[in-house]
């Protein structure tokens, strides 16, 4: 299933990288993409570990605003 339509990222791809990502921004970087519309950010958080999800909820998505 596609999670990020803008970057054609599937749940299978994200699960394989999520264990090493400490944040949603890190997960995008691990996939070598940048968020475009940002609609997938809440879904991306669900792929992080519970402790990582709490940190991600408190931290703004720094890579979304960088050009
Ligand atoms: S759906 Fe992921 S950036 Fe648009």
Describe this structure in a few short sentences.
The protein has 67 residues and is mainly alpha-helical. The protein is built from 5 helices and 2 strands; from the N terminus they run ββααααα.
Explain how this protein is built.
The longest helix has 9 residues, at 50-58. The protein is built from five helices and two strands, in the order ββααααα. The protein is globular and about 25 Å long. The protein has 67 residues and is mainly alpha-helical. Helices cover 49% and strands 7% of the residues. β1 and β2 form a beta hairpin. It has a two-stranded antiparallel ribbon with strand order 1-2. FE2/S2 (inorganic) cluster (FES) binds at residues 4-7, 35-40.
Helical amount: 40-55%
What's the order of the H and E elements?
EEHHHHH
Shape: globular
Q: How many E-type strands?
A: 2
Which whole number gives the mean pLDDT? 84
* Total discrete domains: 1
Largest sheet: 2 strands, antiparallel
CATH architecture: Orthogonal Bundle
| Heterogens | FE2/S2 (inorganic) cluster
Can you tell me the residue ranges where pLDDT is under 50 for at least 5 consecutive residues? none
**Spatial order of the strands in the main sheet?**
1-2
| Residues in β-strands, percent | 5-15%
Straight-line N-to-C gap: 28 Å
CATH domain fold name: Arc Repressor Mutant, subunit A
CATH class: Mainly Alpha
Number of helices: 5
């Amino acid at each position: 299933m596609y999670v990020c339509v803008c970057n054609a990222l599937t749940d299978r791809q994200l699960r394989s990288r999520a264990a090493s990502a400490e944040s949603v921004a890190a997960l995008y970087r691990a996939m070598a993409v940048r968020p475009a519309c940002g609609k997938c950010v809440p879904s991306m958080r669900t792929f992080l570990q519970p402790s990582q999800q709490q940190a991600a909820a408190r931290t703004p998505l720094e890579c979304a605003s960088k050009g």
